[in-house]
C-alpha cells in the first residue's frame, strides 16, 4: 500500500484527451519531475509541459489532489494529455521510469476501499455504472454510489439491534405483565424490517437481470 502506482484512466484510442493517473506517496514528486515545476496547489488545474529525460512530450492539464482528499485517500496526480495512444503510453512509461509501478486492474479502487474512502457497495456501483446501458439501472447505481445502500444497511442494523434489545426484555421479564402495546410495537417493527429487506431483494434481483442482459 505504500508504493506509488500509475495507469491510464481512459480507454485506449484516439480522442481529444487521455488521462494518466498516479497515486501514492511519491505521486507529487513524479509530477514535479515530469513538469519541471515545483509548486502545486491542491485541486488547482495547471497547464504544464510534460517532459521525459528532458525531452518535451506534450502540453497537458495537470491536477494534484493532496491526501486524504482524493479518490484513493493518497496523494493523487492526474495528467490530462492529448488523446494519442502513443503519447499516452509514453507519459505512462515516463511515470514508471520515475519510480511508479504499473497499477493492477482495480487497484485504485482497492486503495480507496482500504483507505475507507469507499465501501464495497459503492465500488460495485462504480464498476456497474461504467457498464450500464439501461436508464433505470443507471439511476439506481448512481444512488448506490452516493451511499444510499450503505445508509439503508446502517439504519437496518440499528433497528435490528433495538429489536434484539426488546426481545431480550421479553425473555428476561416473561413472567411479568408486559403491556400489549409493547408486544405489538416489537412485532410491527420486525414485520416492517422484514418487508424492507424483501423489497430490497426484489429490486436487487430485478436490477441484476437487467445488468446481465447488458453483458
From TrEMBL:
Q: Which GO terms describe its molecular function?
A: GTP binding; GTPase activity; identical protein binding; metal ion binding
Q: Where in the numbering of this chain does the GTP-binding protein TrmE N-terminal domain appear?
A: 4-117
Keywords of the record: GTP-binding, Hydrolase, Magnesium, Metal-binding, Nucleotide-binding, Potassium, tRNA processing
Matches recorded under Gene3D superfamilies: Probable tRNA modification gtpase trme, domain 1, tRNA modification GTPase MnmE domain 2
Q: Which GO terms describe its biological process?
A: tRNA methylation; tRNA wobble uridine modification
Keyword GTP-binding in record:
yes
Name assigned to this protein = tRNA modification GTPase TrmE
Amino acid at each position: 500500500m505504500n508504493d506509488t502506482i500509475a495507469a491510464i484512466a481512459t480507454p485506449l484510442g484516439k480522442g481529444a484527451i487521455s488521462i494518466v493517473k498516479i497515486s501514492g506517496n511519491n505521486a507529487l514528486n513524479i509530477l514535479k519531475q515530469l513538469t519541471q515545476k515545483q509548486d502545486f496547489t491542491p485541486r488547482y488545474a495547471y497547464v504544464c509541459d510534460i517532459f521525459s529525460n528532458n525531452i518535451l512530450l506534450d502540453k497537458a492539464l495537470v491536477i494534484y489532489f493532496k491526501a486524504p482528499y482524493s479518490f484513493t485517500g493518497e496523494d493523487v496526480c492526474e495528467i490530462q494529455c492529448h488523446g494519442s495512444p502513443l503519447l499516452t503510453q509514453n507519459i505512462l512509461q515516463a511515470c514508471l521510469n520515475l519510480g511508479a509501478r504499473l497499477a493492477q486492474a482495480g487497484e485504485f479502487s482497492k486503495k480507496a476501499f482500504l483507505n475507507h474512502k469507499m465501501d464495497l457497495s459503492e465500488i460495485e456501483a462504480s464498476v456497474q455504472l461504467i457498464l450500464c446501458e439501461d436508464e433505470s439501472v443507471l439511476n439506481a447505481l448512481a444512488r448506490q454510489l452516493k451511499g444510499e445502500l450503505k445508509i439503508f444497511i446502517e439504519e437496518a442494523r440499528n433497528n435490528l439491534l433495538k429489536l434484539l434489545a426488546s426481545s431480550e426484555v421479553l425473555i428476561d421479564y416473561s413472567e411479568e405483565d408486559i403491556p400489549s402495546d409493547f408486544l405489538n410495537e416489537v412485532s410491527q417493527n420486525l414485520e416492517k424490517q422484514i418487508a424492507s429487506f424483501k423489497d430490497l431483494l426484489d429490486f436487487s434481483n430485478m436490477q441484476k437481470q437487467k445488468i446481465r442482459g447488458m453483458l
